[in-house]
Amino acid sequence: MTSRRVLTGSKQVSLEVIKRLSSYLRDLKTLENNGVTVVSSGSLAELLGISSVQFRKDLSYFGPFGKKGVGYNVCTLTAKLTELLGAGDCMGFALAGAGKLGSAIIQYSSLQRFNIKIMAAFDSDRRKIGKKIDGLVVADAKDMETTVRTMGLKIGVICVPAKAAQQVAERMASAGIIAVLNFAPTEIKILKKVHVSNVDICVEIEALSYFVRQSAT
Amino acid sequence: MTSRRVLTGSKQVSLEVIKRLSSYLRDLKTLENNGVTVVSSGSLAELLGISSVQFRKDLSYFGPFGKKGVGYNVCTLTAKLTELLGAGDCMGFALAGAGKLGSAIIQYSSLQRFNIKIMAAFDSDRRKIGKKIDGLVVADAKDMETTVRTMGLKIGVICVPAKAAQQVAERMASAGIIAVLNFAPTEIKILKKVHVSNVDICVEIEALSYFVRQSAT
User: Which of A126, A174, B42, B116 is least crowded, fewest Cβ atoms below 10 Å from its Cβ?
Assistant: First the structure.
């Protein structure tokens, strides 16, 4: 909900732009795997489901890409975006709440493609502690701070119930986490120097249902 | 990725605004359950993790709410937002892909709070067809169009692998679905008269990892 911006050179870039760049990179990799070498801004925009103006604007934050009338070299653009997003390095994260959604995320195979790796998962439920999910043993939530600090983890994913989310976020922040992806159906109050992204599945569906009702009237 | 706007009275409202209203409603319900009757715009904004300017702006699309200096009556505001979002009516959806993430969504207990109900789930994997998840039997994907049409479902949730997502979205659209929530790690190309919302867990985490790297430099 909060506006998260970061300085890149002299320009401020929002989390929304970074998320779009990340999805551009994902789709460029698919093109690369399919043997496409050069692509026009128009074709790329169509593939990405956005306007070519939006695409060029997003890239423009980070300097010149492509040549007018020639299009983009897929391999070069992929390499540049990979470097820009730091997507070549492996990034580990900690997950709190190994319930159904948390377990699904632990087992989410697409993460590997993004060089993202779950390093530790925690739960306070005795029935879940010690359980092995996709090779990862769920640890006791009381050890979260120590483990996060020892492993130097900076990203936390929250899949705990709504009422526990704020406290878990604060504990993560105190242990050195500086970016949180929150799946709990509640808002996490802003913590100093911590970026919070919220994904609330109910809110997503409810917003769509609003559009459905509007379409029917 | 696409800009989705809808006319409300004479003003255009984006999907982002509707999603924020939906999360305001979620948090107002919590306040109401906690016995809070009146709340100031400032306190509400703090709870919601946004600025009070943003909050007032979002509400302003839909006419006057609250009185200056008096604050908001929680019960009245909850009722108005419920009516506005049509959140009092039950809204059913169809889900394609009953893998780990799809199963987690089927079992997602918070949906009930939002009057959202999964009405049908489909998979093309023989090992999943016929499986009972939280009382719902996973149906054969080949019957999706018929079921969606018969039940008059308008919202589809896609949890299939990336390569199958576009085709599933097109089949849903042909059966009458007009709003899609896509969890597959790929972009769904714009379909006529269909709203698409994308939630890519990898993109979310990759965007956060960009901010982590920026913070480290």
Answer: A126
Across residues A129-148, what is the average pLDDT?
A: 96
User: How far apart, in Å, are the Cα atoms of A158 and each of A75, A168, B26?
Assistant: 35, 8, 18
Q: Any idea what DSSP says for residue A197?
A: E
Torsion angle in degrees (nearest 10) through CA of A57, A61, A63, A67 = -10
Domain boundary among A51, A85, A119: A85
**Length reported for chain A:** 217
* Total count of domains within chain A: 2
pTM comes to 0.81
pLDDT above 60 (res B8): no
- Angstrom distance (rounded) from CA A126 to CA B184: 32
Q: What is the DSSP letter of A141?
A: G
Residues 6+ apart with CB under 8 A from B154: A212, A215, B176, B177, B178, B179
Tokens of A88: 């070549």
Sign of CA pseudo-dihedral A130, A133, A137, A142? negative
Which residue in chain A has the smallest CA separation from B204? A19
Is there a contact between B87 and A205 if contact means CB atoms under 8 Å apart?
A: no
Domain termination residue (choose one: A47, A69, A85) = A85
Please choose, from the candidates A187, A182, A12, the residue with its C-alpha nearest in 3D space to the C-alpha of residue B208: A182
Position A195 pLDDT exceeds 70: yes
A52 and A129 assigned to the same domain: no
Residue found under tokens 């019957």: B143
Quote the radius of gyration of chain B (alpha carbons, Å): 20
Range of the domain at B128: 91-203
- CB contact under 8 Å between B210 and A86, yes or no, is yes
Q: Contact, A104 vs A58, CB < 8 A?
A: no
Asked if A206 and B107 come within 8 Å (Cβ–Cβ), the reply is no
Looking up residue B67, the CATH number of its domain turns out to be 1.10.10.10
- Residues A197 and A195: their CA atoms lie apart, in Å, by 7
